Amino acid sequence: MRVALFITCVNDTLFPGTGKAVVSLLRRLGCEVDFPAAQTCCGQMHVNTGYRTEGVRLARHFTEVFAGYDAVVAPSGSCAAMVREQYPKLAKPGSRGAAAIAEVAPKVYELSEFLIDVLKVDDVGAYFPHRVTYHPTCHSLRGLHLGDRPLRLLRNVRGLELVPLPGAEECCGFGGTFAVKNPAISAAMGADKTRNILDTGAEVLCAADNSCLMHIGGTLGRQRAGVRTMHLAEILASTEEAQ
User: Fold this and answer.
1) Hey, how many other C-beta atoms are within 10 angstroms of the C-beta on 73?
2) Which of 68, 92, 178, 228 has the least CB density, counted as fewest CB within 10 Å?
């Protein structure tokens, strides 16, 4: 398959290792992976804060950049949900923009969706000998309805001990601009999440969105908790040779 990597803003600027992990993993599974250099922000921040015109412009650019690929894979449930759920609402019915979105948006997948639903694989040959707990981020859980897809992948990683996270479906408190507008509430929610993480005894917290991991990881770091945060892609890309 000819697959495009949609890196997303947070990963491009702060977590480039996640993008590298996605490319390594997909190539290992036989995919031809491209990185369209013209890609930009998907417009989620703009639309969520009322800047609809900018969101429409970015949606139009996204469909131009990613047209023609068999699939577009994003290491972010949040940004994949933006394209699939919000883009169709931005375009005028019957317009060229609506047609372009209808063509591209259904081909945009969060990583675990692509592996399970498109490649039909739940064992990617990974090796990660650590105790791990998984946090289902809000957009991946409630927007994309990923269900147990990430857990199925993690359970098949050799050496990995997967432990359940109490209150897993509760928001971590990041919510993009929510954390900026409501810092006290965001911090309190983050504290609840980290307390549950520590109760698991896990060495590593895994999620499908680095934005949420950044928020939780900041709280864990201030507490000197000794728990690492890792994106799902980085665990799945790990092999015995790389340890």
Assistant:
1) 28
2) 92
